[in-house]
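Narrative of accomplishments. A recurring question from our advisory board has been how the design workflow behaves on a single, concrete structure rather than in aggregate. To address it, we present the structure tokens for one chain from the evaluation set, followed by the sequence designed for it. No filtering or post-editing was applied between the two.
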């Protein structure tokens, strides 16, 4: 099952297109939910935050209804913020029956959630050896990316909080492993897990500009040609200063698609980025 979230249907459409194409290459189909709504974007940590859990719980109910149609309880999302919100609320209502009862009574026109959905980030699917895995990814590579140096930017919500994040929040490695499997050179730099400034860009762009300038400048100092990320908001913010440093940020699935020769799923802009960095061969 596939929960797209709002951003991949708008300014992050290239993320969705490249992810779907890469997964299809490995016979994995994402089946979009019949109905879904915004997840609420950010998980609310206040102890009495019940209302903020309505939106993500409604999406989990939609997934519950959809499970019988495809015979799989995994709900996959691309956006790291959507992943974190859905995963955390799923954990809360599964472990806290009182909160689930309160939400169920409030949402009395909805079926009760039975806590059977398994929320996954697409990276977990990609790195799962029983589905794809690094070995099969390496075998699917068609282009030589050995001269391309790539830094990973994980985003806060992919790694935190511990137990919800999908890698070590202090020393992540999954994207470095993925870059290596694609034949490129992974660049590990100190700001790879720093916040990009998030939604500060909405009301004070200068805050984000200063933040991402430090991040992108550091990636350049460590020798990166480009940055890959999993988060649409990080992608947007990091590219604010792209022209100043000539270090573009792309989605990790776009890198995979290019390495595997799936050019038809990539935008002209993304293809031009690769051409400028490695000649586009």
């Amino acid at each position: 099952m596939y929960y797209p979230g709002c951003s991949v249907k708008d300014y992050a459409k290239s993320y969705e297109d490249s992810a779907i194409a890469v997964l299809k290459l490995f016979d994995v189909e994402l089946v979009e939910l019949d109905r879904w709504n915004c997840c609420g974007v950010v998980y609310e940590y206040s102890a009495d935050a019940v209302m903020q859990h309505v939106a993500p719980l409604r999406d989990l109910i939609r997934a519950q209804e959809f499970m019988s149609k495809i015979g799989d309880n995994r709900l996959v999302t691309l956006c790291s913020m959507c992943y974190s919100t859905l995963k955390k609320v799923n954990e809360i209502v599964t472990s806290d029956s009182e909160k689930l009862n309160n939400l169920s009574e409030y949402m009395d026109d909805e079926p009760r959630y039975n806590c059977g959905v398994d929320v996954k980030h697409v990276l977990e699917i990609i790195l799962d050896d029983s589905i794809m895995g690094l070995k099969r990814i390496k075998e699917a590579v068609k282009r030589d990316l050995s001269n391309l140096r790539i830094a990973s930017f994980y985003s806060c919500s992919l790694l935190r909080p511990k137990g919800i994040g999908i890698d070590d929040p202090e020393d992540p490695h999954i994207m470095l492993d993925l870059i290596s499997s694609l034949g490129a050179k992974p660049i590990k730099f100190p700001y790879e897990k720093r916040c990009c400034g998030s939604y500060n860009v909405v009301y004070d762009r200068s805050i984000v500009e200063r933040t991402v300038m430090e991040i992108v400048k550091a990636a350049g100092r460590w020798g990166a040609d480009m940055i890959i990320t999993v988060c649409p908001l990080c992608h947007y913010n990091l590219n604010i200063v792209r022209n100043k440093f000539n270090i573009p940020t792309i989605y990790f699935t776009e890198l995979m698609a290019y390495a595997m020769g799936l050019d038809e799923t990539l935008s002209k802009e993304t293809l031009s980025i690769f051409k400028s960095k490695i000649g586009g061969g």
